[in-house]
Design a protein that fits this description.
alpha+beta; FAD/NAD(P)-binding domain
Length: 623
């Protein structure tokens, strides 16, 4: 049996799936190792892809040739664009998914992928080659798999501990075992700094016990828009079987003061407030008991009831994640209008797990010490399927490159939310699960959900991530876009160019055009032409603002071009504050731009560091 691979990916959550698929696309012989073959790409929490900033990331993964958007469209049971009332810069697509269909489609998609083997097994330790290279992994069945590069995407499984009130039990998630041996191997064998984080999930309830008449309805949006940029036939393995019901409604309801009173009366049973949970939870997705304590002036909280799929009666209650015991969860749920008789099919719980402090890795997602070891997803301190998928794609790309003897590559911060996230992870101090927001990006007008293909497809093709057939389709779209823009700029109606008149549509792609279109210019019933028109309306409306951002991007790129030598001596860099010096030593930024984003780094210190780097280069050249 041949147990040698170019790339091994451990963990088949959303990060692992994208990592394995990316490596295989580059031609690397790849192994995806998972504890349970039937839980590949499991939607352990809410059954949805997208949302604020997350929708942008899912579209970026698609533009980079990844799988998440394609599988989402197959499994979607509701599609919406969030933030429609605001400008296009913060519009975010979101799909409610059939969680079982999503998992099965991703499994089928990966099984069809050339160069990729998927096997069931639990990694327990590493095979090492000296002090800078990982040679492979050992499983719980004492099998050895050797590799050129390794990607670890372990999710919440490293020393996972589930909390139901004051009752705790080991688990990677409900129904799956934890990975304790591998967690210890990260400490003992790789000597990495490990921390502890916490997340949670809400109860699931049965539809036949819900009174929907007391709730508001949130139906799917009508229209042809979806996550994918490319036609289904251009994806590897051909079209996936699609969920038949595409417009299942979500419901909205508020908790009551009685819900809050129940929580307050039982805080002594909350492990979060009794010191039993040591891991830090995300500030932006708090448990319900955390909302009650932190926001005492709020007497109700909005909850969303989301269907988990076509062929199940279970509903996910978004907004009431809790670690309180089942005996408290029942009256909590019954205190909500329409849920007075609800039956809980799965109780909520909190989970603690190990993660690696991400300042130990490069922006390529390679470990700074173990150069062929890459990490992606919640092990890096993030939360969310989309953030995990974006990291997985970058980790898989670079793992394949390193295994082939090539240098790893970085995505630039001005090109994608994925790059913003990775740069934040390795540069900022991560004390809680990181969550991506549009506000984290300096260049939101450039990093829109509608133009991910224009930003990333060419880069993806150049680096082997995007297939030739997809890139050919993209180039035809790009040429059509440029041709139509030229027409709009040079054609006049009532004394003004069509381009100038587009600007008055306030970026709304569904608004009626203020001028007639000649029949041979655009066929707006054609999906490609409709996409061209939407893109031009948004681009024309933001043209002035985009030019200002371009000036800022040029300045950023100037700082990015200032590479910091790997052996630069911060210890004796005079003029820097001690706190700044210690952070620079810890993070070891690769460029002046990255250094400028370190917490506490002032513009004056950035300028001083630029002078010190210049002096260092001159001294080395003269030597």
């Amino acid at each position: 049996m041949d147990n040698h691979y170019d790339v091994i990916v451990v963990g088949a959550g959303h990060a692992g799936c994208e990592a394995a698929y990316a490596a295989a696309r580059l031609g690397a012989k790849t192994l995806l190792l998972t504890i349970n073959m039937d839980h590949i790409a499991q939607m352990s929490c809410n059954p949805a892809i997208g949302g604020i900033a997350k929708g942008q990331v899912a579209r970026e993964i698609d533009a980079l040739g990844g799988a998440e958007a394609f599988v989402t469209d197959a499994a979607s049971i509701q599609f919406r664009i969030l933030n429609r009332a605001k400008g296009p810069a913060v519009w975010s697509p979101r799909s409610q998914c059939d969680k079982v269909w999503f998992q099965r489609c991703m499994k089928l998609f990966l099984e069809r992928t050339p160069n990729l083997d998927i096997k069931q097994g639990m990694a327990t330790s590493f095979l090492l080659d000296g002090t800078e290279r990982i040679a492979g992994i050992v499983t719980n069945l004492h099998e050895e798999y050797r590799c050129g590069s390794l990607v670890l995407s372990s999710g919440t499984f490293l020393s996972g501990l589930l909390h139901y009130g004051m009752t705790s039990m080991p688990g990677g998630r409900a129904g799956d075992p934890p990975s304790d041996d591998l967690a210890q191997a990260l400490r003992d064998q790789l000597q990495l700094r490990v921390g502890r984080l916490k997340t949670g999930t809400p109860p699931r309830i049965l539809a036949k016990t819900i009174d929907f008449s007391q709730m508001g309805e949130q139906p799917a949006e009508t229209g042809t828009e979806r996550f994918c940029y490319f036609p289904a036939e251009l994806y590897d393995g051909g079209p996936l079987p699609s969920a038949s019901h595409k417009n299942m409604s979500c419901r909205m309801v508020y908790s009551t003061p009685a819900t809050i009173d129940i929580v307050k009366a039982n805080l002594q049973l909350a492990p979060l407030y009794q010191g039993k949970i040591k891991g830090i939870g995300t500030r932006y997705c708090p448990s319900f008991e955390d909302k009650v304590v932190r926001f005492p002036h709020h007497h109700q909280h909005l909850l969303y009831l989301e269907p988990e799929g076509e062929f199940t009666e279970e509903y996910y209650i978004n907004g009431i994640s809790t670690s309180l015991p089942p005996s408290v969860q029942i009256p909590m749920i019954h205190s909500v209008p329409g849920l007075e008789k609800a039956v809980i099919s799965r109780y909520a719980y909190a989970i603690e797990y190990d993660f690696l402090f991400p300042d130990q890795m490069e922006r390529t997602l390679a470990d700074k010490r173990w150069h062929n070891f890459f990490t992606a997803g919640q092990i890096n301190g993030t939360s969310g399927y989309e953030e995990a998928g974006g990291q997985g794609l970058v980790a898989g790309l670079n793992a394949a490159r390193v295994a082939a003897g090539q240098e790893p590559v970085e995505l630039a911060r001005d090109t994608s939310y994925i790059a913003v996230m990775i740069d934040d992870l390795v540069t900022k101090e991560i004390k809680e699960p990181y969550r991506l927001f549009t506000s984290r990006a300096e260049y939101r007008l450039h990093l829109r959900q509608d133009n991910s293909d224009l930003r990333l497809c060419r880069w993806a093709y150049q680096h082997g991530l995007l297939s030739g057939k997809k890139f050919a389709w993209y180039e035809r779209y790009e040429a059509r876009l440029q041709e139509t823009e030229n027409y709009f700029r040079t054609t006049k109606h009532q004394g003004k160019s069509l381009w100038e008149q587009l600007k008055h549509l306030t970026g709304d792609p569904d608004a009626a055009l203020p001028f007639p279109l000649e029949p041979d210019v655009l066929n707006t019933t054609d999906p490609v032409d409709a996409k061209v028109l939407r893109q031009l309306i948004i681009s024309s409306h933001y043209e002035g603002y985009l030019k200002r951002e371009e000036a800022s991007i040029a300045k950023l790129n100037g700082l990015e071009s200032w590479k910091i030598p790997a052996d630069f001596d911060y210890e004796h860099a005079k003029g820097l504050k001690n706190e700044t010096r210690q952070k620079l030593i810890k993070i070891r930024p690769t460029t002046l731009a990255q250094a400028s984003r370190i917490d506490g780094m002032t513009p004056a210190e950035t300028a001083l560091l630029q002078v010190l780097i210049t002096r260092y280069r001159k001294n080395n050249q003269s030597a």
